[in-house]
């Protein structure tokens, strides 16, 4: 008897929803230490993308549009590594809310996963900062990479808290849509191509990703404290521990709202099995 040939077509939105919910079950069943280390990988991976962005955009000869486009494409490295190599990213795990709504995982288990993964992402990002600092990567381009790190951090801390919060919402809408594309993909090439536009777009638009900022902001502070030239036209005084907490608190809450509500709950409403149970009407999702 011949074996059925595997499909090369992307998963349908309804199949993606099932894959997201199934993944949520596996995530809450992961032992603590494995979950923490996997989250550390993701924090470091996103940090590597942020470093790539910093080095590329340190070229002052780039026009505004070119710097935004090339920086955004460079940053995509982070999510490519997360989705293709396997690790736990806090922002993407916002999608677990649909599994909770389907009663496939508990709300407490979901929140516990988020807490462990957020901490693991932070530890991984800080480890990446330490490695980059020890390797003197910010010396590239005659130290312009270090100056850019300070400028990026200052630009992320300077806006109002509410502005950062809404930028966080927009950011994780893009990120979680990219993650859903990753679930739909059948190959590594599909995942990479699917990630490029939404991730480069959120970076180019200056949205706030809490895990990326766990690298960008400490890296900027380290660059400032270790004597890299301060950027002209930017208030480097805001680059401090207080400034880092200010930004990350807004970005984290915004990311939760953007990912869990505007993507996770919205797609659960459209594609979830609640319609089969007659909660919102007769008939299943297409």
Radius of gyration: 20 Å
Quickly name the level 1 CATH class.
Mainly Alpha
Q: What is the helical fraction, as a range of percent? A: 55-70%
The coarse overall form would be globular
Which regions have little confidence, pLDDT < 50, spanning 5+ residues?
A: 281-286
The second-level CATH architecture is Up-down Bundle
The CATH superfamily label reads Glycerol uptake facilitator protein
Which structural class is indicated by helix and strand composition? mainly alpha
Distance between the termini: 32 Å
Family: Belongs to the FNT transporter (TC 1.A.16) family.
Transmembrane segments: 35-57, 69-91, 111-133, 164-183, 195-223, 243-270
Subcellular location: Membrane
Organism: Bifidobacterium vespertilionis
Secondary-structure map:
Layout: H1 13-29, H2 32-56, H3 64-85, H4 97-101, H5 107-134, H6 144-157, H7 161-184, H8 188-204, H9 210-225, H10 241-271
Helix pairs in contact: 1-7, 2-3, 2-5, 2-9, 3-8, 5-9, 6-9, 7-8, 7-10, 9-10
Report on this model:
This protein has helices spanning 13-29, 32-56, 64-85, 97-101, 107-134, 144-157, 161-184, 188-204, 210-225, 241-271. It is an all-alpha fold and 286 residues long. The chain has one domain (13-272): Glycerol uptake facilitator protein. Helix 2 crosses helix 5 (107-134), helix 7 runs antiparallel to helix 8 (188-204) and helix 7 crosses helix 10 (241-271). The radius of gyration is 20 Å and the shape is globular. The protein starts with 12 loop residues before the first helix and ends in a 15-residue tail after the last helix. The model is unreliable at 281-286 (pLDDT under 50).
């Amino acid at each position: 008897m011949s074996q059925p040939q595997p499909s090369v077509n992307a998963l349908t939105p309804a199949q993606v929803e099932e894959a997201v919910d199934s993944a949520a079950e596996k995530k809450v069943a992961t032992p603590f230490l494995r979950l923490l280390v996997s989250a550390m990988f993701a924090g470091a991976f996103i940090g590597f993308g942020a470093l790539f962005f910093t080095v590329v955009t340190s070229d002052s000869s780039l026009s505004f549009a070119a710097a935004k486009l090339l920086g955004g494409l460079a940053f995509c490295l982070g999510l490519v590594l997360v989705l293709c190599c396997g690790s736990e990213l806090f922002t993407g795990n916002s999608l677990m809310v649909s599994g909770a709504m389907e009663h496939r995982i508990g709300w407490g288990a979901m929140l516990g996963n988020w807490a462990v993964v957020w901490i693991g992402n932070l530890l991984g990002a800080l480890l990446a900062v330490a490695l980059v600092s020890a390797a003197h990567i910010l010396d590239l381009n005659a130290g312009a990479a270090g100056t850019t790190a300070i400028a990026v951090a200052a630009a992320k801390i300077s806006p109002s808290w509410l502005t950062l919060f809404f930028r966080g919402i927009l950011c994780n809408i893009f990120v979680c849509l990219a993650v859903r594309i990753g679930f739909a993909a059948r190959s590594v090439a599909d995942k990479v191509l699917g990630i490029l536009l939404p991730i480069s777009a959120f970076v180019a638009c200056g949205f706030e990703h809490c895990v990326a900022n766990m690298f960008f902001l400490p890296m900027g502070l380290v660059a400032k404290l270790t004597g890299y030239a301060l950027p002209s036209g930017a208030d480097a005084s805001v680059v401090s521990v207080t400034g880092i907490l200010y930004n990350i608190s807004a970005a984290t809450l915004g990311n939760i709202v953007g990912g869990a509500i505007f993507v996770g709950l919205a797609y659960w409403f459209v594609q979830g099995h609640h319609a089969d149970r007659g909660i919102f009407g007769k008939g299943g999702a297409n």
